[in-house]
Amino acid sequence: MAVQTRGLFASVADRRDADEQLLATLDPAEGAGAVARAIDAAERSLVVILSACGDGEAARLVPRLGQAATRGVEVRLLAGMALLEHRFFMELLDTYAPDVHVRLVRESLHEAVLTDGTVGVAWSRTGPSIGGLAVVRAPDVLRNLRALFQVSWTNSPTLADYRRLSDHVRSDTARQILLALSSGRTDEAAARGLSISVRTYRRYVAEIIRELGANSRFQAGARAVELGLLPSVPGGS
């Protein structure tokens, strides 16, 4: 998604001479204010894409997102899986933004806020630093950004679904079992690899299938990918 987004911004930049208002680049120091204004201006819908949730700037956005949802705006936050490592950020969501819809995505994200389909603020990161910040008003680019977002949103698990899983299903042992199921290894070979008995392995498999709400081993593997417990390609990164 990040590569496609950069291409969209480049296409707008090529047309800046024709209409300077299509894309306005900003100094990174102006970023927090621009994002806050975009969130506060939303009347119908608000799309927020964050890859880094551990810094202060991201945390300060949460109450604003909650206020937008309270006034009737549909707020959707698509965050990187790293969100799960930031307990403070999740506590902020629970306290200040309980009506915000949150989903998690594995791939690299180009961070952005899209307001009512009429304006977008987008930025890139180099480590913790923010750069490449721009305000976009080009309708065709905003449509394409929303389309890219929608694809990622549709294929990503909800934060609520992920949080319902027990620590057991999110453990490394469970992940190895899910990888074994996805790769078609026999129960005997998988059990040997985990240094457990076949009986114990099969009990673990049954518990995992039950908790994932699946009806078969194949369905459990598909559900695991859906929830971000496994990569899309078994063994991939």
TrEMBL record:
User: Where are the bilayer-spanning segments?
Assistant: none
Q: Name one GO molecular function term.
A: DNA binding
Under the heading Gene3D superfamilies, the entry gives: Winged helix-like DNA-binding domain superfamily/Winged helix DNA-binding domain
Q: Which InterPro entries match?
A: Sig_transdc_resp-reg_C-effctor, Tscrpt_reg_LuxR_C, WH-like_DNA-bd_sf
Start and end residues of each HTH luxR-type domain: 167-224
Top-level taxonomic group: Bacteria
- A GO biological process this protein is involved in? regulation of DNA-templated transcription
UniProt-recorded name of the protein: LuxR family transcriptional regulator
Q: Organism source for this protein?
A: Streptomyces buecherae
The organism that produces this protein has a lineage beginning with: Bacteria, Bacillati, Actinomycetota, Actinomycetes, Kitasatosporales
